[in-house]
Amino acid sequence: MADLGQQPNRKRSRVFLATMTLAAVAAVAGLSACSQPSDSQPPTAQRQAAEEQARRDTDEKAWADAEKTGTVAAYTSYLQNFGSGAHVAEASQRIVSLNEQARKDADEKAWAEAEKTGTAAAYMAYIQNFGGGAHVAQARQRVTEQTRKEADEKAWADAVRAGTAAAFTAYTQSFSSGAHVAEARERLAALDEQTRKEADEKAWTDAIRVGTPAAFTGYIQKFGSGAHVAEARQRVAALEDQARKEEDEKAWADALRAGTPSAFTTYIQKFGSGAHVAEARQRAAALETQGRKEVPSIDIKNTCKAAAGAMVSLMGGTTTEQDVNACLDSEQKARDQIVKDRATYSSADKKQCMRTGVYLPSYVEWLTCLEMERDVRKMERQPQFGTAPWSLPKVNPAINSAGR
User: Fold this and answer.
1) How many CB atoms are closer than 10 A to CB 129?
2) CB 71 within 8 A of CB 98
3) Phi, psi of 355 (to 5 degrees)
4) Strand, helix or coil at 74?
5) Considering all CA atoms of the chain, what is the largest pairwise distance in Å, rounded to the nearest integer?
6) Any bridge partners for residue 141, and if so which?
7) Buried/exposed 84-123: b ≥16 CB within 10 Å, e otherwise
8) Is the dihedral of CA 49, 50, 51, 57 positive or negative?
9) 350, 307 in Cβ contact below 8 A?
């Protein structure tokens, strides 16, 4: 730029030198005019030729300076000082070329800065400043990509901040191909597992608090692969075993309290593998033996034959084996019933239904008497029947001694 500023002074110096040169040339020409022929060039033409040469020299030097500097300002200064110089067209081309290069350089620099920043706003600024730049199409694509990426990152940050299954599910639905879809699914799985574990633990706590087989069974049904299934099964088995033992003990206590063969037999039937089955069998057998000893022995065959004969005498006809067998069956059942229910009969009942050294010849008759005496005792305890003693009429053994 300093060379361009000094250009007018240099031009004046060159003009002055050219003038002096022309003056010297004219002087020489004047001196030689006397000796040269009259057809030589006139002094004016020579002067013009010298001036033209000086102008060309100045033009070339200015052009050389402009090329050496190689800037738009240098070429512009050349054009301003040598509007009709030999290099005007070339200077104009150089200016256009330099301006184009400067534009390209600015374009590339702006694009590099946008790429370095990497935001949608940076790419939009590039598009606005370089609408016809080399990277406009790419910048628009980056704006679209970056806008979606920024939205993706914001949505992911919101989901992470919320930290709920609903938030991560919403993210995967809105950004099915987003950068964090895989991680979102992993977090969803982890949250589901955590929720399942919490529900498992709560259900287990509830089952323990209730502490019943039904509660533990309900836990097993709801959480078949839960953390406490094995323990739940153990507790169910233990509780059922405990309940079975308690029921066993209660039934055994009831059987002992009743103290009858039927009570012990019922216990055996209900608790075939109970803790007291062996003892129950022993007690039932002992009571059966004792009962048989307590019940007088009656020759039921003779009784049934006599009864059948009496019936024939009364009704006519003949005695059949079927009649005797039916009687024997009834007598045997009556005897078994007496043995079974003997604990329900009082001593008074027994005394009322048998005489010293004399027994009824029929178990059926004896059972009927005992049951009637027992029922009378029950009636005596009821207010509506009063307080007087109730009893059956005394039985005359002679009536039965000969059968019916």
Assistant:
1) 12
2) yes
3) -110, 165
4) helix
5) 217
6) none
7) ebebbeebeebbeebeeeeeeeebeebbeebeeeeebebb
8) positive
9) no
pTM score: 0.43
- Using CA atoms, how far apart are residues 323 and 328, in angstroms rounded to an integer? 9
Cβ 329 vs Cβ 369: under 8 Å: no
- Helix ranges restricted to H, 175-318: 181-210, 213-222, 229-258, 261-270, 277-294, 300-315
Q: Is residue 165 classed exposed, middle or buried when 0-12, 13-18 and 19+ CB atoms within 10 A define those classes? A: middle
Mean pLDDT on 258-283: 90
369-403: per-residue pLDDT in tens? 878 888 887 776 666 545 545 444 444 443 344 34
What pLDDT, in 10s, does the model give residues 27-82? 333 433 444 444 555 679 999 999 999 999 999 999 999 999 989 999 999 999 98
Amino acid at 331: E
Contacts of 346 (CB under 8 A, 6+ apart): 373, 374, 377
* % helix, strand, coil for the chain, step of 5: 80, 0, 20
Instruction: State the DSSP string of 125-160.
Output: HHHHH-TT-TTHHHHHHHHHHHHHHHHHHHHHHHHH
| Residues in contact with 280: Cβ distance below 8 Å, sequence separation at least 6, in sequence order | 252, 255, 264, 265, 267, 268, 274
For residue 34, with 0-12 CB atoms within 10 Å meaning exposed, 13-18 middle and 19 or more buried, which class applies? exposed
Alpha-carbon 395 to chain mean position: 85
What ranges do the domains of the chain cover?
2-33+41-124, 163-210, 211-294, 298-401
Q: Are 22 and 50 a contacting pair, CB within 8 Å?
A: yes
Cβ atoms 277, 271 nearer than 8 A: yes
Q: Could you tell me where the DSSP H helices lie in 163-212?
A: 165-174, 181-210
How many residues are listed for the chain in this entry? 404
